[in-house]
Each structure stands twice: as C-alpha cells, then as structure tokens.
C-alpha cells in the first residue's frame, strides 16, 4: 500500500514537471516605478529601507531583539553598502510591490518566487536558494492514536483530489498562481479562495491548524516550521517543481541590483550565509522555541520582556510611549537585570553606581530600583532640555544622547553647532554632526568646549538604534500608548 502511495506521489510530480509554471496570469500589481531612487541616492541619504514580512523565518521580534533570515542578511547588506538599515513590515506581494514602486521601500526582502509576471513590475536579485510548494492540511481527528497508513488514507496525497476543494491563499502570491496552473494540469477546478492581501504569510497556515479552513499552500521550509508548532498539520504533499527564491528592487534601480548581486555572490562563498540559512530554515527546534515564547512577535503576544509592567509604569511617569522606553532598556541591558558593563554600569538601566545612588537606587541590581533611578535620571535630562529644545521629537534625541554619553558632551556639541551657524535645536546633521567632530583636535580644543575629547560615534549610533528599534516595536505590538513626549 505504501509503495502504491509513493507511486502516486511520484507520478503527480512528473505530471507537475511536464507543465509550465509560466504565469500568463492575472497577477495585478498596482504600479510601475513612480520614483527614481538608485544606490547613489540611497548612499547620500544614509539608509536603505527594506520591505519585510513578519513571520517565523524572515523577520520577527524575540525577547526584544529583531531576528530572522532576511533581517540578518539585510544587516550585512547595509553594512556592505555603508548605510543604516530601516525596516518596514508589510504583507502581501501586491502591496509590497506597490510600496516599492512608490518609493516607500528600496528592496523587497521577502522569500519571493521568481515568476515571469513579476518581472514586468520588479527586477529580481540573484536567487538565494530553491524551494517548492506544499499543501497544508489538517491531520484527521485522533491522529495521535492512528497508524501512519490510516492517517495517509485520510489525507490528500494526489493533487487530483483537490478538484472541487476550497484552498485559501493570499492574493497575488505564487501560491495563487500555482493553484490556477494546477487546475489546468489536473483537468478540474480547484476553488482558489483569496485571503486579504494584508494577511501575514503564516496567518493562513494558522487558520488551517485552528480548523477555520481546510487547506492552504506554503513554501515547504515555512510549512515545516509551522508543522513543528502545530503538530496537527501535515505538510508532506508536494504541489510544485523547484522554484527560485529571490529579493526584488525597482526596475529603475540597476546600480542597487548590481551591488546586491555582488554582495550575494560574495557572502554565499562564506560560512556566514549557511549559518544564517540553517539557523532559520534547518533548525525547527529553535524556530519552535521562538514561536512558543511569550516574548515573540510571531504569536499573539503583546509582551517584550518580564519587565513590561515596570516599563509601562515608568513610561507613564515620563509621559513617553512605553515602547520607546522599552527600546532604551533593551539597548542598555537586553532586559537582563543582572547585566554589568565593562565600565561598571549595572542593572536593567545600566547606571553607574554614583548615578544610581543619586537618583534613588541603593541596589541597582534590583529591577524596580534600577527602573526607578533610570526614570528619575531621564526625567532630570528631559527637564534640562525642555526649554533648550522646544520640539518634543527633537528633544527626545538630546535626552537619549545625554543618557548614553552624559550631559556635558551634548552641551559641548550644541555650543559648537551654534558657533558654526547651524541650528542647535536640531539633532540630525546639526548637533549630531558636531558631536562626532569632538574627536578632532580642532573641535575638542575649541574654547566653547568644556568636556574635552570624545569619541562620540557611540551616542550618535545609540540614538539611531533606540529610535529604529522603537519603530520596529510599534510595528509588531498593536497595543501602543500614543502619548506625546512633552
């Protein structure tokens, strides 16, 4: 019996291989490029914006830290291009292509299947790897007590049996196209039901697991990760021949495409690429840990850390969005209350002993005391900058930089900015610029400078990283306190 089933599956694959996956299709993407932003413009502005999907492989937040196959590679790409990385989470291929061509992103870092139809709207990078599509279906009730042959009898193993069945996929994906082509190949209609285009790529798989729908289609790697999380899922029925997976850029960004391809060629020769690939595609136990964690954006959790309540309370006192304060705490200690820096800063808020004592913490290793002292210190800094930097959005950058480097260096940079006829109340390209200049004798010996030399790249990077992580947190946690900074 098992041999017969293997014959049926093999025969199905032969049939699939005989038909073209060419999409003469009605994939209806919304736009061609409406902007001209290639690599020189990206380099000039200093950052690249990547459009990513929130799922258990590509990009997610785990215990306050951004992770994922796409995310780790994007960080390396940004470093290669000498720019900062900005992440924009989006869902649905059509929507992502529309955003790309409108200039809302510079690269789509999805696991995109290369198709002819999509080549009309985007330019693909070199492939990352090959994959294939599988049917996602539920095992029969009581499957745990049934033998494998009995379970197989109750599952769809021959694609012909999908005729007349409702299969749900996200609009505009290669899964939709595969099902339409498969209907032609098997000589009968599969009822292709389209989920909302803003649905996340794993949300439809979850609906199968929960019994809301019976079938969907997914790439085999992502399907396997989800099957580890939802053991009632079966993902062993193959529906496609191998397909190439790549990222995409605008059709009028040839220099960016060339740079990405060169970087891909180089990094795929190094062990780093396979380490990252295996971490997310070949480590189901690790993926399962991420998915089941109370502190992962993959599930329905609204938690970042065990100290969220303390952070929320502190943010209320500061009149900050709690996610901004959470980003600062992660930057300082990665939510580790026992953390100690090489310089002797301790606790969640990484205060030096003198500062901790001054602002109310006799024991900086105690999370409540550390948070209390950190909030008191931030309140003190905010009061200092309140009249000097009227704009609340700008002011927070001065507060963050002061928390990292101390007030004196930021005051020096402000004086240098004013002396050189720039705006001392604006951070970007003004105070930030002269803060970096404090490592040059011409500037740290200037009479207006009181604190002397500073290798001040760190506070500049600190501000950028806290604010960029804050944007990531806002993307992933729907329960955001929209409290303006005053």
Q: Can you tell me the residue ranges where pLDDT is under 50 for at least 5 consecutive residues?
A: 1-28, 478-486
Number of helices: 21
Distance between the termini: 72 Å
| Sheet having the most strands | 6 strands, mixed
Q: Over all CA atoms, what is the radius of gyration?
A: 26 Å
Q: Briefly note the structural class of the backbone.
A: alpha/beta
Mean pLDDT: 86
Percent helix, as a range, is 40-55%
Strand fraction equals: 5-15%
Q: How many beta strands in the DSSP annotation?
A: 13
Give the key terms.
486 residues; alpha/beta; 6-stranded mixed beta sheet; 3-stranded antiparallel beta sheet; 21 helices; 13 strands; disordered N terminus; disordered C terminus
Summarize the SSE layout with pairings.
Layout: H1 2-18, H2 39-45, E1 47-52, E2 60-62, E3 65-67, H3 69-81, E4 84-89, H4 93-101, E5 107-113, H5 116-119, E6 123-124, E7 129-131, E8 133-138, H6 148-153, E9 166-170, H7 174-186, E10 191-195, H8 203-209, E11 215-219, H9 220-229, E12 233-238, E13 243-249, H10 254-267, H11 271-281, H12 284-292, H13 308-318, H14 322-333, H15 353-358, H16 367-386, H17 392-405, H18 407-419, H19 427-436, H20 441-444, H21 457-476
Parallel strand pairs: 1-4, 1-5, 9-10
Antiparallel strand pairs: 2-3, 5-13, 6-13, 7-13, 8-11, 8-12
Helix pairs in contact: 9-12, 13-14, 13-16, 14-21, 16-17, 17-18, 17-21, 18-19
Characterise the protein shown here.
The protein contains 21 helices and 13 strands. The longest helix is centred in the last third of the chain and has 20 residues, at 367-386. By secondary structure, the protein is α/β, with parallel strands linked by helices. It is globular and about 85 Å long. It is 47% helix and 13% strand. The strands form four sheets. Strands 1, 4, 5, 6, 7 and 13 form a six-stranded mixed β-sheet that branches. A three-stranded antiparallel β-sheet has the order 11-8-12, with helices on one face. A hairpin with a 2-residue loop joins strand 2 and strand 3 (65-67). The chain has helices at residues 2-18, 39-45, 69-81, 93-101, 116-119, 148-153, 174-186, 203-209, 220-229, 254-267, 271-281, 284-292, 308-318, 322-333, 353-358, 367-386, 392-405, 407-419, 427-436, 441-444, 457-476; strands at 47-52, 60-62, 65-67, 84-89, 107-113, 123-124, 129-131, 133-138, 166-170, 191-195, 215-219, 233-238, 243-249.
């Amino acid at each position: 019996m098992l041999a017969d089933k293997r014959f049926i599956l093999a025969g199905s694959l032969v049939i699939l291989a005989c038909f073209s996956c060419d999409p003469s299709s009605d994939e209806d993407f919304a736009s061609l490029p409406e902007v001209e932003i290639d690599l020189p413009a990206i380099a000039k502005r200093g950052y690249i914006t990547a459009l990513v999907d929130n799922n258990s492989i590509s990009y997610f937040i785990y215990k306050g830290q951004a992770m994922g196959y796409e995310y780790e590679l994007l960080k390396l790409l940004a470093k290669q291009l000498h720019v900062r990385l900005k992440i924009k989470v989006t869902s649905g291929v059509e929507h992502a292509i529309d955003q790309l061509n409108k200039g809302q992103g510079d690269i789509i870092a999805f696991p995109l299947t290369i198709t002819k139809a999509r080549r009309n709207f985007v330019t693909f990078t070199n492939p990352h790897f090959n994959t294939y599509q599988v049917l996602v279906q539920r095992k029969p009730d009581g499957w745990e007590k049934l033998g494998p042959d009995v379970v197989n009898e109750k599952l769809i193993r021959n694609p012909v049996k999908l005729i007349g069945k409702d299969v749900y996929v996200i609009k505009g994906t290669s899964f939709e196209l595969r099902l339409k082509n498969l209907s032609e190949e098997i000589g009968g209609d599969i009822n292709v039901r389209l989920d909302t285009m803003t649905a996340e790529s794993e949300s439809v798989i979850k609906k199968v697991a929960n019994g809301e729908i019976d079938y969907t289609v997914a790439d085999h790697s992502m399907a396997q990760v989800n099957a580890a999380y939802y053991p009632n899922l079966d993902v062993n029925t193959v529906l496609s021949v191998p397909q190439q997976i790549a990222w995409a850029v605008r059709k009028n960004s040839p220099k960016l495409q060339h740079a990405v391809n060169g970087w891909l060629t180089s990094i795929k020769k190094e062990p780093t690429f396979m380490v990252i690939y295996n971490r997310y595609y070949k480590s189901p136990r690790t993926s399962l840990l991420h998915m089941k964690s109370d502190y992962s954006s993959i599930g329905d959790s609204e938690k970042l850390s065990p100290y969220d309540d303390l952070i929320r309370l502190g943010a209320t006192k500061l009149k900050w969005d709690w996610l901004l304060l959470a980003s600062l705490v992660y930057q300082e200690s990665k939510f580790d209350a026992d953390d100690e820096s090489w310089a002797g800063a301790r606790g969640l808020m990484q205060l030096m002993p003198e500062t901790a004592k001054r602002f109310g913490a006799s024991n900086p290793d105690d999370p409540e005391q550390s948070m209390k002292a950190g909030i008191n210190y931030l309140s003190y800094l905010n009061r200092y900058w309140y009249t000097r930097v009227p704009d609340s959005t700008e002011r927070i950058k001065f507060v963050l930089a002061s928390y990292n480097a101390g007030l004196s260096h930021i005051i020096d940079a402000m004086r240098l900015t004013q002396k050189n006829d720039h705006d001392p109340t604006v951070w970007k390209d003004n105070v930030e610029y002269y803060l970096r200049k404090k490592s040059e004798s011409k500037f740290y010996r200037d009479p207006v400078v009181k604190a002397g030399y500073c290798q001040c790249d760190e506070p500049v990077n600190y501000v950028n990283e806290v604010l960029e992580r804050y944007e990531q947190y806002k993307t992933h946690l729907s329960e955001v306190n929209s409290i303006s900074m005053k």
